[in-house]
From TrEMBL:
Protein name according to UniProt: Cadherin EGF LAG seven-pass G-type receptor 1
Keyword field: Receptor
Organismal lineage: Eukaryota, Metazoa, Chordata, Craniata, Vertebrata
Gene transcribed to yield this protein: CELSR1_2
Length: 1213
């Protein structure tokens, strides 16, 4: 049945609680036991009591097998117990019950025995269960309260009564605890020795050793902590050494003698304390007190202290030589050194020589928030391209904080984002800056962001730091040039000087750099190549003379192209150049001289002759006015003309009419001049002579000699040249025949002159084969009254009058660099308005550019060599088209070939191999190193992403930022698991298909002291021959620390079981030395617990030192006698025939084998002796009634030892 205690509940099950005689015992099943969480023990008291396992004093295997709740419930964990790992049974289990409200503290030592297959046999536990109560003082008042007990011990008394038979307990003097006059509780032990009581467990046969100590308060820095310590007497009646002698002290009342000068002893082999950094010098750390049971000078102790590992620790701490108070000598800095290991020595002043004790103090410096975040760079600068996708990772802002993690939990945010607000965002935990909106350089080209890192510390408060992030937006060629005007209009006189500027067009590009460099070209409308545009300035110059009379307006289309790759083009620029007429052409008479005949009987107003002149100008410059010149210099006017000239001329039409009656008999002919004057400024004029003959009336018409005239005339015939002479014959006497073109003279290309030999047709204006290819002129021959007509067919033949003209003065085409040789890029063509060979065009590549050729007949440009965008991104070819006429004419255009980038270049890392190092305890996302690669391609083909995909990321321990190439830690590192990582990263471009390059990266993990030393086994069995020389090395106990360097330095100590001090363990190499004689016959086995320390980490192992017996003791045999009374009866079988006893000899050496023999006195063989066992039998010869006394000498021999003794044998009848 489970037992019910006040304040404590006990459960019994497969892993239950047994209460044997020695005290409480936990019974644990080895192998497959009950499931995790099964209740083993219920030690719950009042709610103010908190329970916890003491791992420093409990075997590791046991501490992993059980868990203790704050409320006092002891449960089974999931850890499987393997009895094969235990060398002894039972094991101690130490618990602490604490009442923080009033400082009460109970230390409970339980016994846990293991049961199951393969478990060691349960040895007799000689030491009772122990309950150490750290009370608060006033022991008499605590044990025997008058009224209510002291407030600081009231709760302790309640707990003690709940767990034990208190106050029915026994004092160290053997008397029961009593509260009466003259005896208040138990006698107070001397000095500060604890008081020990022997109580009984409630409702059970077991007993419990209760030890009451005192409470000490110690101050560490600004934090006040209670450090509870108990002063234990090693030689007290129920102390550690007296536990085994408890029964003898109760029953035999024996005492152990004390040496002349006992060594001092610290309560613990090592102490650990924590103190906050930055405390002022003189801050108390801990008080270390050793106990020396001696009196006087032999018990007076002096303390000293020195650094054990790092000599720097000597500068930080000092110890009071008399009181053992350790204080700081200077302010501590956790970030400089967070752990100090000090060796403290207590030396007494006894004689004949002082004795000493050593303990070790490990001071852990706790963190305060005395460091602010520090960014990896004083400022960050990053260039990004505009038009990036939303969510693009721009860069990672990282700060570090030397404080502990609680004070170094960094939080990132933007301060006053300004223009960056809404465009960028920062991850508050990782510091990754991303785009959250499109980035347009033309809107904002630079962002200056302020990032704050806050460590969120609490002691004394958070600290922060700021850094400026400069993000420069690189230009993408995403804007085409824009002309300043939709249409440019300019008017220029036709006599403008050659090479003078006509106007300047201007286009602006919102991009910058080469993307904003604008190049201009004329696409179309540049008839006859009159104009030239400067590629960079946009200035349009006149390079050939203008002729208003030929072309009056030019409409040029201008292309603006930037220097980006690929370029942006705007061909919408329109320029209208209007040619203004100047009076540069004098009137030209269609014939000179003008001759006509008129009958003398014509009426007034008769039209005699049409004077006709033409002016190539326009407007007023071409509006003509005619007048007669009566005084022609070559033929002075006779005086008779003064009375009145018979002819007038119409000022506008040029018709000469009869203004007065004619009289041939008076004047037979008239000779005068005609002036044609234009209205230009300045006025230009021409003169022609006119001859009018007055005829008689006749009756015969002139007759042409040919019915029709046909001829060919080349279109390039010169103006004024003779075309044809026509002849008409008039049969009348003295008739004068005049010739006129009366129809078919399109555009007044021809003129006819009446001559004596006939009518001469001349070319008055240039011919144009394109406009008219044939003229049918009707020519009239008149004698003044009668006339005749004839048709003249003039066929115009083509001349090489036109040059080839390209459709555009500038072509732009694109071709990918990966096109094969022989690829046709573009076909350009020119037109020639001539015909035949004059219009057959041949194309020629002017410059020797080996990458291209042009087909001379078709104008197709093809590649001759492989193209490489990275070597040259554009080519400008000058192409000339010439005809095959005579003389040969030509036109030139320019073809700009833009090479489009193909993804033909793989990325290339700047280094062949990268190396970096990082401490294994760095926080996640710590920057290790940065890799960088370049790609000769452009655009998406040259934009790189970094990745571990397909490579090696250290099994996921690292990640790489895709855009920056920074490699960071993704998981916690462990140098002892992986000391060196061999990573492989890739740089991948964004081309189609993508190309990539790899690089090997070696990351060395630097060690920190994060691993405790590890013994080869948890328990060691050491076999040592007894009588080994004092000071000899028994064995070497070593541990392995997976760390390296100073982090792997190990200090060895004996922490349990070495009382009295039988062995010594070398601090550095682990050599175990015997300090006294080892005697198998006194003690066959020693059990010590050794500890390996790599400050502040420790591990323990149990060492069983088993002595091997040596034959170092002679057999023991004293004189003895045998009394034999023989009563003779009639019964013959009453005489004893069996073994009556054995020789009382023994050998302390268990390994020795004894041989027994009679030396003398048994010549009659009265006694029969077994030589191997020493058993004795009586000879049948003694079965009589005669008294007999014999003295015999018996010898017993071992291995080389021989002893004898006398045997007195007496027979009584």
């Amino acid at each position: 049945m489970p037992l019910r205690w006040p304040g404590a509940a006990w459960l019994l099950g497969l892993l239950g609680l047994l209460v044997p005689a020695p005290g409480w015992e936990l019974r644990l099943a080895g192998g497959r036991g009950a499931g995790p969480g099964d209740l083993l023990l219920d030690l719950s008291l009042e709610p103010q009591w908190h329970c916890a396992l003491d791992p420093a004093r409990t075997a590791r295997q046991l501490s992993e097998a059980v868990e203790v709740t704050r409320g006092g419930l002891v449960r089974r964990t999931a850890k499987r117990l393997s009895c094969a790992s235990f060398a002894r049974n039972p094991l101690p289990l130490h618990l602490r019950l604490e009442s923080p409200r009033d400082g009460g503290l109970l230390s409970l030592r339980l016994v846990a025995s293991l049961h199951g297959p393969g478990c060691p046999s349960v040895a007799l536990e000689r030491t009772p269960s122990r309950l150490v109560i750290f009370s608060v003082s006033h022991l008499p008042a605590l044990l025997c309260p008058r009224g209510s007990p002291p407030s600081d011990g009231r709760r302790v008394i309640s707990a003690l009564a709940a767990l034990t038979s208190f106050p029915q307990c026994q004092c160290p003097d053997g008397l029961p605890l009593a509260c009466r006059a003259g005896r208040e509780g138990c006698p107070q032990p001397p000095g500060e020795n604890p008081l020990e009581l022997l109580c009984y467990l409630r409702r059970t046969r077991g007993d419990l050793l209760v030890e009451l100590g005192s409470v000490r308060k110690e101050v560490a820095g600004e934090e006040r902590q209670e450090k509870l310590r108990v002063e234990r007497s090693r030689d007290g009646p129920f102390g550690a050494e007296s536990e085994a002698g408890w029964e003898s002290s109760r029953h035999q009342n024996t005492r152990r003698l004390r040496s002349v000068n006992s060594p001092p002893q610290f309560k613990l082999p090592n102490y650990q304390v924590s103190i906050a950094e930055n405390q002022p010098p003189g801050t108390r750390v801990i008080t270390l007190e050793a106990y020396d049971p001696d009196d006087g000078e032999a018990g007076r102790l002096t303390y000293s202290m020195e650094a054990f590992f790092d000599k720097r620790s000597d500068d930080y701490f000092s110890i009071d030589p008399e009181k053992g108070v350790v204080v700081t000598s200077r302010s501590l800095d956790r970030e400089t050194k967070d752990t100090h290991v000090l060796q403290v020595t207590a030396v007494d002043h006894g004689s004949p020589r002082p004795r000493s004790a050593i303990t070790f103090l490990t001071v852990t410096v706790s963190d305060t928030n005395d460091h602010g975040p520090v960014f990896e760079q004083p400022e960050y600068r990053e260039n990004i391209r505009e038009n990036l996708e939303v969510g693009y990772e721009v860069l990672t802002i990282r700060a570090t904080d030397e404080d502990a993690p609680d004070n170094a939990n960094l939080f990132y945010r933007f301060l006053k984002p300004g223009v960056g607000e809404g465009v960028f965002e920062i991850d508050p935990h990782s510091g990754v800056v991303r785009t959250c909106a499109p980035v347009d350089r033309e809107e904002i080209s630079e962002y200056h962001l302020v990032v704050e890192a806050n460590d969120q510390g609490k002691d004394p408060g958070p600290r922060s730091a700021t850094v400026t992030v400069h993000i420069m937006v690189e230009d993408e060629n995403d804007n085409s040039p824009q002309f300043s005007e939709k249409r440019y209009l300019v008017q220029i006189p036709e006599d403008t000087t050659i090479n003078s500027q006509v106007l300047q067009v201007q286009a602006s590009d919102r991009d910058r750099g080469s993307n904003a460099q604008v190049h201009y070209s004329i696409v179309s409308g540049n008839l006859k190549g009159q104009f030239y545009i400067h590629s960079f300035s946009g200035s349009i110059d006149l390079i050939n003379p203008l002729d208003y009379e030929t072309i009056r307006e030019y409409n040029l289309r201008i292309k603006a192209q930037d220097g980006g790759r690929p370029p942006q083009i705007n061909s919408s620029g329109m320029v209208s150049i209007q040619v203004l007429d100047v009076n540069d052409n004098a009137p030209i008479f269609v014939s000179t001289p003008f001759q006509a005949t008129v009958l003398e009987n014509v009426p007034l107003g008769y039209s005699v002759l049409h004077i006709q002149a033409v002016d190539a100008d326009s407007g007023d410059n071409a509006r003509l006015e005619y007048k007669l010149e009566l005084f022609h210099p070559s033929a002075p006017v006779p005086p008779s003309w003064d009375a009145g000239f018979p002819f007038q001329i119409n000022n506008s039409t040029g018709w000469i009419i009869v203004s007065a009656e004619l009289d041939r008999e008076t004047v037979e002919s008239y000779h005068f001049g005609v002036e044609a004057r234009d209205h230009g400024v300045p006025v230009m004029s021409s003169s022609a002579s006119v001859s009018i003959t007055v005829l008689d009336v006749n009756d015969n018409s002139p007759m042409f000699t040919e019915k029709v005239y046909q001829l060919r005339l080349n279109e390039d015939a010169a103006v004024g040249s003779s075309v044809l002479t026509l002849t008409a014959v008039d049969r009348d006497v003295n008739s004068v025949v005049t010739y006129q073109i009366t129809s078919g003279n399109t555009r007044n290309r021809f003129a006819i002159t009446s001559q004596s030999a006939g009518g001469l047709i001349t070319l008055s204006l240039p011919l144009d084969y394109k406009q008219e290819r044939q003229y049918v002129l009707t020519v009239t021959a008149s004698d003044g009254t009668l006339f005749d007509t004839v048709q003249v067919f003039i066929n115009v033949t083509d001349a090489n009058t036109h040059r080839p003209v390209f459709q555009s003065s500038h072509y732009t085409v694109s071709v990918s660099e990966d096109k094969p040789i022989g690829t046709s890029i573009v076909t350009i063509s020119a037109t020639d308005e001539d015909t035949g060979e004059n219009s057959r065009i041949t194309y020629v590549l002017e410059d020797n550019i080996p990458q291209f050729c042009i087909d001379p007949d078709t104008g197709t440009i093809t590649t001759l060599m492989e193209l490489d965008y990275e070597d040259q991104a554009a080519y400008t070819l000058a192409i000339t088209a010439h005809d095959n006429g005579i003389p040969q004419k030509s036109d030139t255009t320019y073809v700009e070939i833009l090479i489009l980038d193909a993804n033909d270049n793989a990325p290339r890392f700047l280094r062949d191999r990268y190396q970096g190092a990082v401490f294994e305890d760095v926080p996640l996302s710590t920057s290790v190193l940065q890799v960088s690669a370049t790609d000769r391609d452009s655009g998406q083909n040259g934009r790189l992403l970094y990745t571990f995909q397909g490579g090696d990321d250290g099994d996921g321990d690292f990640y790489i930022e895709a855009t920056s190439g920074v490699i960071r830690t993704l998981r916690k590192l462990d140098r002892e698991n992986v000391a060196v990582y061999s990573l492989r990263a890739f740089a991948v471009d964004r081309g189609i298909p993508p190309l990539k390059a790899s690089v090997d990266i070696q990351v060395t993990v630097l060690d920190i002291n994060d691993n405790p030393p590890v013994f080869e086994r948890d328990e060691f069995d050491i076999f040592v021959k007894e009588n080994s020389p004092v000071g000899s090395v028994v064995t070497r106990i070593s541990a392995i620390d997976p760390d390296e360097g100073t982090n792997a330095q190990i200090m060895y100590q004996i922490v349990e079981g070495n009382i009295p001090e039988v062995f010594q363990l070398d601090l550095l190499n682990g050599d175990l030395t015997a300090l006294m004689d080892l005697d198998y016959e006194s003690q066959t086995e020693y059990v010590i617990v050794v500890q390996a320390t790599s400050a502040p980490l420790v591990s323990r192992a149990t060492v069983h030192i088993r002595l091997l017996d040596q034959n170092d003791n002679a057999p023991v045999l004293q004189d003895f006698q045998i009394l034999f009374n023989n009563y003779v009866t009639n019964k013959s079988n009453s005489f004893p025939s069996g073994v009556i006893g054995k020789i009382p000899a023994h050998d302390p050496d268990v390994s020795d084998k004894l041989n027994y023999t009679f030396v003398k006195g048994n010549e009659l063989n009265m006694l029969l002796l077994d030589s191997s066992t020493g058993e004795l039998k009586l000879s049948r010869d003694l079965d009589n009634n005669r008294p007999l006394e014999a003295i015999m000498e018996v010898s017993v021999s071992g291995q080389g030892e021989l002893i004898t003794a006398l045997l007195h044998g007496i027979t009584i009848v």
